[in-house]
């Protein structure tokens, strides 16, 4: 019984070699970044709610790069300038921010 | 003059530093070397109770690829400039992305974020340093691979290589991360590329399945050290169990820790409970619930026990909260569940199941971590005192009840002397426990910063006197912590450093190792 249950889980799966498929550019857009990073805190009672406050985009970008007290700083290798500008714009204007 | 770095490496002239910047720019591209102060801001933010200047970097270089790193090593040797490698750079509370010593060039490997291979039959992965746990999680989901990994609490933004080389821990049965790593690729100071274990052989296909290779096993040397730059790491993944049953057992009194540990140890050693159990104190749970400290106490000094009791009653939080899980089939878990129920009943604990946990943020993020689902729920801790100050005080303890009670009381007394709260948990390894305490303070207040520094110092030395050593430490205390482990070990480490990195260019001072 036990063996069957575990085996069923893994089924027939081929080796996945991820050459080129994962990594590199990383963020599709600011919405994805918000969902995968910011939202974990800002939609979860860890950081303050950001949406609907018309926070200036420059301020948002600054906080992300400098960090602020409990808010960690993020480097350009983690979040590129273009995606950061996009997420700041979306938060500021209330544009679509994906959430699971 | 290409550079206006405020923080030149010790003993390096501005003219030579300019040459270094020019030469590494030629290797990685102009845009992948940062020198301007405002661009370096994200690397400078630290949570430790020392001035930012102490850990100020001179520059950041962001290579993409092993060959670039080899060439950077050549430049570093030529000018004797120290480089400090980071992977995902989220070592928050242990030093963040800042170097151990002022002036070092941070080598930021976050761009190297390829998941090179996942083998679903052998349940292994080979990853680069810039891969985050969130990325690996998404990858496994996308490819519909029923494989789990173990991750630390900052999982969504941290990664397996950085965590493993600092010997971090997580919460699944694979929670001791170095133990479940298998094979590394390392660029040495002289530019040679070493593959450990079976990876040393040209055409081996067993690198990710057998750890030891032939002769001495070298992997441990590249953890908590500065003998090389790790560029690839193999890790074991766990097949998702057909039935996963996380639970929490709450206990009403601080002194209950003794019987909790005595009751759980046999289950953990025999692997009835296979994962890294956590025994968390009220004040760890409260900020993650979230409870506001100011609603219970606004006076000076540490929060009084009566206020802590009131928090427990108001929010259904135990004095201690045990988190563990059963990982198996329905049949095996049904059988083992009876043991868990009997142990809880026999020790006066209240079980909270997954169904009953709904609506509690603190329980939810823990249950997610026990199956390796990334989240950042634990950052609620930083709202407790506010002000962004944090260092982890993390001594190792035997998994024995009397020992844990003794450590808890020692820590609580010293913390209170400086006005800080005991925000602690025990992470049960197999026979050990990592006693992890978050020393939370307001970093915007200079007097609190001074107190936090003095408090860690006293904790460290009082614990060392009793024979308790750190499992890991922040970079500001690297030297002091290394000193508690005695002179012979340090002498050997230094001789190794001399042999492998005679110009002292890789992260000198990390874990107290330098020439
Ligand atoms: C709220 C909170 C909860 C936490 N919970 C946990 C937890 O549950 N478990 C845990 O283990 N930690 C925990 N931490 C501490 C820390 O955030 C994690 O351990 C995190 O994984 C470390 O950061 P990183 O993975 O980005 O590693 P990095 O910051 O990239 O690396 C850590 C250090 O290792 C060295 N290093 C990194 N990469 C290399 C390399 N390629 N070659 C050579 N040396 C290298 C460097 O000295 C570097 O500073 C927690 C922190 C916070 C704030
Ligand atoms: C690890 C948790 C965490 C993550 C991830 C995080 N933040 Fe924050 N953030 C915080 C916290 C906590 C604060 C409040 C800091 C304080 O005042 O101590 C904050 C504050 C802020 C502020 C200031 C809000 C104000 O009221 O002035 C902005 C803007 C912000 N974050 C933006 C972002 C963006 C954009 C992202 C994603 C790129 C992000 N944060 C990711 C935790 C987080």
* Uncertain stretches of 5 or more adjacent residues of chain A: 8-12, 18-24
Number of domains as seen in the coordinates of chain B: 3
Q: What fold name stands as the CATH topology of the largest domain in chain B?
A: Vanillyl-alcohol Oxidase, Chain A, domain 3
Distance between the termini of chain B: 30 Å
Distinctive features:
heterodimer; A: 100 residues; mainly alpha; Cytochrome Bc1 Complex, Chain D, domain 2; 4 helices; 45% helix; B: 515 residues; alpha+beta; Uridine Diphospho-n-acetylenolpyruvylglucosamine Reductase, domain 2; Uridine Diphospho-n-acetylenolpyruvylglucosamine Reductase, domain 3; Vanillyl-alcohol Oxidase, Chain A, domain 3; 3 domains; five-stranded antiparallel sheet; 33% helix; binds flavin-adenine dinucleotide; binds heme C
Structural commentary:
By secondary structure, chain A is mainly alpha-helical. Chain A has a domain at 27-93: Orthogonal Bundle (Cytochrome Bc1 Complex, Chain D, domain 2), CATH 1.10.760. Chain A is built from four helices and one strand; from the N terminus they run αβααα. In chain A, helix 2 packs across helix 4 and helix 3 crosses helix 4. Residues 8-12 and 18-24 of chain A have low confidence and may be disordered. Chain B has 515 residues and is an alpha+beta fold. Chain B has three domains: 14-109 and 503-512, Uridine Diphospho-n-acetylenolpyruvylglucosamine Reductase, domain 2 (2-Layer Sandwich); 115-239, 2-Layer Sandwich (Uridine Diphospho-n-acetylenolpyruvylglucosamine Reductase, domain 3); 243-474, 3-Layer(aba) Sandwich (Vanillyl-alcohol Oxidase, Chain A, domain 3), CATH 3.40.462. Helix content of chain B is 33%, strand content 18%. Chain B is built from 15 helices and 19 strands. Chain B has helices at residues 14-28, 41-44, 66-79, 133-142, 160-165, 257-269, 282-288, 305-315, 330-347, 354-357, 361-369, 401-417, 446-465, 478-483, 487-500, and strands spanning 33-34, 59-61, 83-86, 105-108, 115-119, 124-127, 147-148, 181-187, 193-195, 229-236, 238-239, 243-251, 278-281, 320-328, 350-353, 388-393, 396-398, 424-428, 432-442. In chain B, strands 12, 13, 14, 15, 16, 17, 18 and 19 form an eight-stranded antiparallel β-sheet that branches. A five-stranded antiparallel β-sheet of chain B has the order 5-6-10-8-9. In chain B, strand 18 and strand 19 (432-442) form a beta hairpin. The longest helix of chain B is centred in the C-terminal third of the chain and has 20 residues, at 446-465. Chain B is globular. The mean pLDDT of chain B is 97. Chains A and B meet through helix 1, strand 1 and helix 2 of A and helix 2, strand 5, helix 4 and helix 9 of B. The site of flavin-adenine dinucleotide has 32 residues of chain B, from strand 3, helix 5 and strand 10. Flavin-adenine dinucleotide is lined by residues 85-95, 109, 129, 152-154, 158-159, 161-163, 165-166, 168-169, 229-230, 378-379, 381, 507, 510 of chain B.
